[in-house]
Amino acid sequence: MILPIVAYGDPVLRKVGDNIDKDYPKLEELVANMWETMYNSNGVGLAAPQIGLPIRLFLVDTTPFADDEDLTEEEQNALKGFRKVFINAQIEEETGTEWAFNEGCLSIPDVREDVSRKDTITISYMDENFKAYKETYDGLLARVIQHEYDHIEGILFIDKLSTLKKRLLKGRLANISKGKIKVEYRMRFPNMKKAR
Ligand SMILES: [Zn+2]
């Protein structure tokens, strides 16, 4: 089932997510619905707060990035078929040089900005079967995970922009929260006026 994606301005996007355990109600169904919702909106990642749940769960499928011809074959292969569920994730370490990448977010349609982040992360997490992992990623893989991880910490990519950029975006962000935007997928807008 495709779930509505929560738009910028909803307080759920600002909550630090809670850990969950195996007994979380209908977890399998939730994960399936989140995959369906993400693919329907052509995203490469989706975090639970974006569908209204303040829990530490996000998913990533970087396959669409593998077509980028600027990447080496090795990088393309790493991105292709990288499809993972991250539960109760904790970034243990971020290292390497900061680099800029043009990011967007399903909760903030039509806004794309260059964001600087460190190149390499080490993250511990559990998969959908609650098997534990500790892994290191770099490049675009790390980038997508960092963006989604921020969501479960209540952080959005626009928080990382300069004061000037933020000021320039203010009007557009207000419009997004009111639903004054054309978007191809289902969304839920916090400040939309109800029709009488
Ligand atoms: Zn996002």
UniProtKB/TrEMBL annotation:
<keyword id="KW-0479">Metal-binding</keyword>
<feature type="binding site">
    <location>
        <position position="147"/>
    </location>
    <ligand>
        <name>Fe cation</name>
    </ligand>
</feature>
<comment type="similarity">
    <text>Belongs to the polypeptide deformylase family.</text>
</comment>
<comment type="function">
    <text>Removes the formyl group from the N-terminal Met of newly synthesized proteins. Requires at least a dipeptide for an efficient rate of reaction. N-terminal L-methionine is a prerequisite for activity but the enzyme has broad specificity at other positions.</text>
</comment>
<dbReference type="Pfam" id="PF01327">
    <property type="entry name" value="Pep_deformylase"/>
</dbReference>
<keyword id="KW-0408">Iron</keyword>
<keyword id="KW-0648">Protein biosynthesis</keyword>
<feature type="binding site">
    <location>
        <position position="105"/>
    </location>
    <ligand>
        <name>Fe cation</name>
    </ligand>
</feature>
<keyword id="KW-0378">Hydrolase</keyword>
<dbReference type="InterPro" id="IPR023635">
    <property type="entry name" value="Peptide_deformylase"/>
</dbReference>
<dbReference type="GO" id="GO:0042586">
    <property type="term" value="F:peptide deformylase activity"/>
</dbReference>
<protein>
    <recommendedName>
        <fullName>Peptide deformylase</fullName>
        <ecNumber>3.5.1.88</ecNumber>
    </recommendedName>
</protein>
<dbReference type="InterPro" id="IPR036821">
    <property type="entry name" value="Peptide_deformylase_sf"/>
</dbReference>
<feature type="active site">
    <location>
        <position position="148"/>
    </location>
</feature>
<feature type="binding site">
    <location>
        <position position="151"/>
    </location>
    <ligand>
        <name>Fe cation</name>
    </ligand>
</feature>
